[in-house]
Design brief:
This protein is an alpha/beta fold. It has 3 domains: 135 residues, HUPs (Rossmann fold, 3-Layer(aba) Sandwich), CATH 3.40.50; 139 residues, Argininosuccinate synthetase, chain A, domain 2 (Alpha-Beta Complex), CATH 3.90.1260.10; 33 residues, no CATH class. Helix content is 40%, strand content 19%. It has a 5-stranded parallel sheet, with helices on both faces. The chain has a 5-stranded antiparallel sheet with strand order 10-9-8-13-14. A 4-stranded antiparallel sheet has the order 6-7-12-11, with no helix packed on it. The longest helix is centred in the last third of the chain and has 20 residues. The chain is elongated and about 85 Å long.
Length: 405
């Protein structure tokens, strides 16, 4: 075990990371610096500061990163319309590169020898944290306690707390049986009954959305304004990226929008079942595709759709800081120059429908698209040669006796 004098820990204040603070102090005989990020999880973070102080931590960083998270991570990803395996809007995945970035920045600023995190050896987050850290600080040492210690259950963690006088908050009321992770983009649920893919979660699991059955009987209409592929206003009111998401989470959640029950393929190789609530993201994706349908050239739009699964897989697997993701991002951002305008949506009992779109950069020409008299804007006779040329190779194959079916 190499010598470590100071380590920066991604710290939530919960059971796992509180144990990790003391374990690092005891195992590595080092100073622990804690870093806690507010990325919109909706929890009071000052208790994390007090808990860290009780554990003897002298250098404590608590930072509000909501705007940076939305502006520099979520919004660029949504310009790509990124969805993993056809459904997942990458809510947990996209938060990890920002946390990795701040971990290594704090480590450099305070002269730490290492960083540490509380991700387990079974999940994706260990990969995301560490790939990001190595990309930004190649020589950094990473300490992953779940891959080193013999504390393998909640019971052993609680026993460690009792032995080392680590305070454990016993929350009143019913404790959630799920492992949950939240930020501005989503809240996720894993574990508990969800480990049976056939089991339907109970209604009181969901935190951000009402059930579609209980949603209002009247639809809610909203208008999203876009500039450069990003949402910049809601119902005509200019908003920052974080405030756009906060606002849309509230409105969409009240209409039952954004629930997902998914079995996904983790990067480490196993299948995992999780449930997600992504109200704002569900609305933003629908609206972004609608404004692109007006403003993007056909071949640019189709190429974006071909690139999207690769982009989404890179984000899911922890390669946000990779050269290939940056290259794809440059191409995507170039495509968004004229993605400006307004989209009107109807939210109703769990559904999102586009009911209008307009743009000063629209490529939609009603004089050409009309089924009425087009006054010579489009010569329908041109279609004959177009079709015959496109059929040429198939006609040649048929004449040669090739079977096409």
């Amino acid at each position: 075990m190499s010598a470590v004098s100071k380590v920066v820990l991604a710290y939530s204040g919960g059971l796992d990371t509180s144990v990790i603070v003391r374990w690092l102090q005891e195992t590595y005989q080092c100073e622990v610096v804690t870093f806690t990020a507010d990325i919109g999880q909706g929890e009071e973070l000052e208790p994390a500061r007090e808990k860290a102080k009780l554990l003897g931590v002298k250098e404590i960083h608590i930072e509000d990163l909501r705007e940076e998270f939305a502006r520099d991570f979520v919004f660029p990803m949504f310009r790509a319309n990124a969805i993993y395996e056809g459904e997942y809007l990458l809510g947990t995945s996209i938060a990890r590169p920002l946390i990795a970035k701040r971990l290594v920045e704090i480590a450099a600023a305070c002269g730490a020898d290492a960083i540490s995190h509380g991700a387990t050896g079974k999940g994706n987050d260990q990969v995301r944290f560490e790939l990001g850290a190595y990309a930004l600080m190649p020589g950094v040492k990473v300490i992953a306690p779940w891959r080193e210690w013999d504390l393998t259950s909640r019971e052993t963690l609680l026993a460690y707390c009792e032995k080392h006088a680590i305070p454990v908050e016993m929350k009143r009321g019913k404790k959630s049986p799920y492992s949950m992770d939240a930020n501005l983009l989503h809240i996720s649920y894993e574990g508990g009954g969800l480990e049976d893919p056939w089991w339907e979660p109970e209604e009181d699991m969901w935190r951000w959305t009402v059930s579609p059955e209980a949603a209002p009987d009247q639809p809610t209409y909203i208008e999203l304004g876009f500039r450069g592929g990003d949402v910049v206003s809601v119902d005509g009111e200019a908003m920052s990226p974080a405030n756009v998401m906060i606002h849309l989470n509230r409105i969409a959640g009240a209409n039952g929008v954004g629930r997902l029950d998914l079995v996904e393929n983790r990067y480490v190789g196993m299948k995992s079942r999780g449930c997600y609530e992504t109200p704002a993201g569900t609305v933003m994706l629908k609206a972004h595709r609608a404004i692109e349908s007006l403003t993007l050239d056909r071949e640019v739009a189709h190429l974006k759709d071909e690139l999207m699964p690769r982009y989404a897989k890179l984000v899911y697997s922890g390669y946000w800081w990779s050269p290939e993701r940056r290259m794809l991002q440059a191409a995507i951002d170039e495509s968004q120059q004229h993605v400006n305008g307004t989209v009107r949506l109807k939210l109703y009992k769990g559904s999102v429908a586009v009911v209008g779109r307009k743009s000063g950069d629209s490529l939609f020409d009603p004089t050409i698209a009309t089924f009425e008299d087009d006054r010579g804007a489009y010569d329908q006779k041109d279609a004959e040669g177009f079709i015959r040329l496109n059929a040429l190779r198939m006609r040649i194959a048929a004449r040669a006796g090739r079977k096409l079916g």
